[in-house]
Amino acid sequence: MEEQKKKVLVLTGGGDCPGLNAVIRGIAKRARKEKTWEAYGSIEAFNGVLNEPQQIIKLTQRKTAGIHVKGGTILKTTNKANPLKFPEIQKDGSVKEIDRSNELVTKIKKLGFDAVINIGGDGSQKISKVLFDQGLNIIGVPKTIDNDLSATDMTFGFQTAVQIATDSFDKLVTTAESHHRVMIMEVMGRDAGWIAIHTAIAGGAEICIIPEIPYDIEKLVKRIDARYKLGKGFVNIVIAEGAKAKDGTIVSRSGEKGSEHVRLGGVAFQLSQQLKDAGCKAEIRETVLGHIQRGGTPTAFDRVLATLFGVKAMELVIHGEFGKMVALKNNNISYVSLEEATRESNFVNKDSFLVKAAKGLGISFGD
Q1: Which of 109, 158, 275, 354 has its CA 20 to 30 A from that of 138?
Q2: Which value, in Å, is the radius of gyration of the alpha carbons in the chain?
């Protein structure tokens, strides 16, 4: 009689990210190699478990073959399914948050799953920590293009986002030079400036504005003016979506119903107007990359990192090492506790060599 196989449930939560499919494939392939494990996927994060009817699929070889080269996630994703603050729309259209975590843990166990692998960013891993404390066998995999998780040296998706941003920046440089313009390119990152500063260095920006270093608009105008002689010249600026002026505020809009996050975006246009109001005479154009940075084929680096994370996550499941998040530490694939994983965010240190090197190249941060 064939021994009943153990089951692991895989899910992707939060924003999509290049490399998610490579993680899913890595988990599924490692599970199949073990012979005693089977991998399943929950559609749209924990919604696949909580919804009626439930949406759970088996991660067969056919379903996962070749998906590592594709952007997005075959399991779909959502940022509106936090089981600790699950959004329930009332009859009057208002949203009430309810805690469905106990219900979720009970359902997962009743479905016969021996473990869960939660692929997501800071918010997802905080959920993992609570569910682990409630008795769920869970492993976290760090995912974010923002690179803002301090417990891992790098997250997959970040390198792809930087490559996309750099490719876009390179195209804007030629337009700026041809028209003697100031080109402002806005990139993602929320409260962290990693994408912006890496793109600025890679692309050769004159100005880089990040959330960690509030800018002085007068200093930016002086820097721009210094680039123009007799009306000729050009300037390329990279700005992170969470950046703000000294004594200023970030540009945000209300989040969608059920989402815990405010929507950032539009700071490029704010900066443009501030420069004009401060007397900048050059023509200014703005470009907001937005979700372009989240999509498309992951770079080779992100495919490798994501695959290694997937394999390591499955091996932690096999060995019963729950309550952990896989991590890249000193060029090794390791793991940390979920508590350590969610203790603090990873921001650009203004005194780091990265910032000092950028300034050494002549890049202004407006400080």
Answers
A1: 158
A2: 22
* The pair of three-digit structure tokens given for residue 12, joined into one six-digit string: 């992707």
165-to-101, 170, 172, 351 alpha-carbon distances in Å:
38, 9, 11, 24
Rounded to the nearest 5 degrees, what angle is found at the Cα of 361, between the Cα atoms of 357 and 365?
80
Catalytic residues, by residue number, are: 146
- Same structural domain for residues 334 and 356? no
Question: In this predicted model, what pLDDT tens digit does every residue of 262-311 receive, in sequence order?
Answer: 667 789 999 999 999 999 989 999 999 999 999 899 999 999 999 999 99
Tell me, what DSSP letter sits at residue 220?
Answer: H
Please tell me the pTM assigned to this model. Answer: 0.92
Asked if residue 258 lies in contact with residue 80, where contact means CB atoms within 8 angstroms, the answer is yes
Residues in the chain: 367
> Which residues have C-beta within 8 Å of that of residue 53, sequence separation ≥ 6?
none
Helix and strand numbers, DSSP H then E, in the chain? 12, 15
Task: Look at strands 182-187 and 284-288 and give their pairing.
Answer: parallel
**What is the layout of strands, in order, in the sheet containing 332-337?**
56-58, 37-42, 6-12, 115-120, 138-142, 324-329, 332-337
Distance (Å, whole) CA 165 – CA 238: 9
> Do 207 and 356 reside in the same domain of the chain?
yes
Per-residue pLDDT tens for 40-60?
Answer: 999 999 999 999 999 999 999
Same domain, 53 and 70: yes
DSSP 197-211: HHHHHHHT-SEEE-T
Chain position carrying tokens 């996050």: 261
Does residue 1 lie in a domain region? no
- The tally of domains found in the chain comes to 2
> Residue 261 pLDDT > 60, yes or no?
no
Q: What is the rounded distance in angstroms from the CA atom of residue 343 to the CA atom of residue 40?
A: 29
- Cβ(221)–Cβ(303) below 8 Å: no
CA angle centred on 354, ends 295 and 291, rounded to 5°: 15
Instruction: Report residue 56: phi and psi, to 5°.
Output: -130, 130
Q: Same domain for 151 and 52?
A: yes
Statement: residue 26 has pLDDT above 60:
yes
Range of the domain at 257: 158-292+349-360
In Å, how far from its chain's centre is CA 10?
18
